[in-house]
Specification:
The complex is a heterodimer of chains A (about 280) and B (about 425). Chain A is mainly α. Chain A has a domain of about 160 residues: Orthogonal Bundle (Cytochrome Bc1 Complex, Chain D, domain 2). Chain A contains nine helices and four strands; from the N terminus they run ααααββαααββαα. In chain A, helix 3 packs across helix 8. The radius of gyration of chain A is 27 Å and the shape is extended. Helix content of chain B is about 65%, strand content about 0%. The radius of gyration of chain B is 24 Å and the shape is globular. Chain B contains 16 helices and two strands. Chain B has two domains: about 240 residues, Cytochrome Bc1 Complex, Chain C; about 130 residues, no CATH class. A two-stranded antiparallel ribbon of chain B has the order 1-2. With about 425 residues, chain B is mainly alpha-helical. Classes of the chains: A mainly alpha (about 280), B mainly alpha (about 425). The interface between A and B is large, with 56 and 66 residues. The complex binds protoporphyrin IX containing FE.
Amino acid sequence: MIRILSILVGLFFSLALLWSLGKGAASFISEPPAATVEQAFHKPPRELRLASDGLFGTFDKQQLQRGFQVYDEVCKACHSLRLVAFRDLKALGYNDDEVKAIAAKYQVPGVDPNTGEANTRPGRPTDFFPQPFANDIAARAANNNAIPPDLSLMTKARHDGAAYVYSLLTGFQEQPAALLKQFPDARTPAGLHYNPYFANLNLAMAPPLTADGQVTYKDGTRSTVDQMSRDVAAFLVWTAEPKLEKRKQTGWPVLGFLLFATILGNLAYRNIWRDMKH
Amino acid sequence: MSFPWANHYNPQHPFMKWMDEKLPVPRLVYNAVGSGYPVPRNLNYWWNFGFMALACLGIQIVTGVILAMHYAANGLVAFDSVEHIMRDVNWGWMLRYAHANGASAFFVVIYIHIFRGFFFGSYKAPREMVWLLGVVIFLLMMATAFMGYVLPWGQMSFWGAKVITGLFSAIPLVGEPLQQWLLGGFAPDNAALNRFFSLHYLLPFVIVGVVVLHIWALHIPGSSNPTGVEVKSESDTVPFYPYFIAKDGWTLGAFLFIYCAVLFFAPNMLGHPDNYIPANPMSTPAHIVPEWYFWPFYAILRAFTADFFFIPAKLMGVLAMFSAILVWFFLPWLDRSPVRSGWYRPMFKWFFAVLCIDVLVLGYCGGSPAAEPFVMISQIASVYYFMHFLIILPIISSIEQPLPLPFSITEAVLGKDETAASGAVAA
Ligand code: HEM
């Protein structure tokens, strides 16, 4: 009885599925899905190698400082870094006074101690990086109706994040003629910028890094657009995962211990089962 | 219960004697996982995964309870409280990665545990209850994992919650009110987040309870074994301690090694980047996908694209998705072959192999965008899935000619069994 019921239920699901399959196949043949412009022209990120990659990777603090400089001089105009506090910058090798000086350059929300009115005051090391815009409406108004996202977690919030940021920053270009030929309707709307690494190919961010030497690096590294893009990507790997080094450094002894314990355990196991065929 | 030749607990030390009279916990341990519990000597490594699952449950509870000390279940701060754990709490990053990857590890282990059962016929009498409780555990695990994934309140948390609770709205008449009742609103919000947290904290302890029953029920007939031939005599078994403690112990070490390798060196490998974007009801992610361990069932859900007679496609998908797991409850009565182990079932063996590939294909499709060719592939794979359990197993179990079984476990291991020989002489 139960087997007859079960075969009936099985047939019910199978037929319903075949019905869906048939209908799907029919429409697939009658109107094959056309390739979209994103499918045809979106590119996977370019390769980027960083010191923090790999099983033994550690941060290149010089590079992080350069990357911070790019953020500080360019990106902060539009992007916040709200999960990072100024004091965290000590991990990049800045000393207390330098951190204080950096914090003081930023205006953070405050309260007038005499009147209680909201105002702004220079940042302190315990403050977090402030928002560049008063609110989302202001952010949209200034950015062609797009909100510049917070960058703290950017490299973890995209596939292959660091390479993505690097590719995006170096990927601004003219819309290819082939694209317009194939998809005449896909012309980049006014105010947006063509970038094949962005998911829908047109983004509201104007190319932020446009000229070599836009930032004058304190360590004297030549600041090409490519170099600045790499550095800021590396910096954003740190903001997204400040515990990356500690994580890998902890991992090795843990794995070493587990390997040792497993080998001992295996020897004990062999010893115990020595005379027991199984 | 145990076999008559099981060692007996016999405390020597006065304190242990005293304890045995007042609260015989040592006796319980001795009889459950000590020398007092005889286990088939021929269990292979597939039998180690139950113990690993137990370890996973322990890891999830310990890391989870500590995470809960720092987490805040409020839509405004949940995302940031998780980042606070990652950045400011001492070893918080390790706890969180251990918990997130622990869930994945748990499911890897449990899927192997379940497929071990499929292949070796562990669900058959006299272990039906062990199996049924196992399926209950699996359902509880899925509910727990789903609600846990909502807690960080990222984009996938929010949209996953929306899609999955939206499934209830497919139920005729009561669907919409039911969905709103479950969520405490029209869309996932603070009310939903709070109750999910509450339940996410509760369910693991319910699982602990069902696991106790699971193991209790197992210890009545005792473990099955790769030959599927029941234990007959003392030479078929070894005491759990030290034999299986040693085996479970070293394989647990190997498991922890792999788990920690992922935890420390690729902790986001199995997660979705979108969940590092705070939940935003105004912006729908391009592809909403659940965690990888739901992919096969998600593929089945999405495979129903056309209304079937008067049943809307969405309702069909929901019915099928739940049925895909619920059929496991009926397995002991669908597969009527008297032979347990797939080793001795020449037809079943092949269908089992196809099922394994089929589920992997379903998983792959479930993680891919809902576009061709993935939809068509998941339709074909879903047909096989249902056919396998509901049609193929009932039929082959009556037409298949099983291979000859060994007389006993001892014979299978040693090539001969004295009892068998003497039995033959007597007859
Ligand atoms: C929290 C999750 C679970 C835990 C901690 C757990 C634990 C265990 C343990 C310790 C054993 C004995 C060792 C072994 O045979 O591997 C076992 C056996 C078994 N489990 Fe589970 N289990 C869990 C989930 C499940 C699920 C989801 C199923 C099936 C749907 C299942 C089905 C079985 C069966 C049939 C056996 C008996 C195997 C045999 O003797 O051949 N278990 N379980």
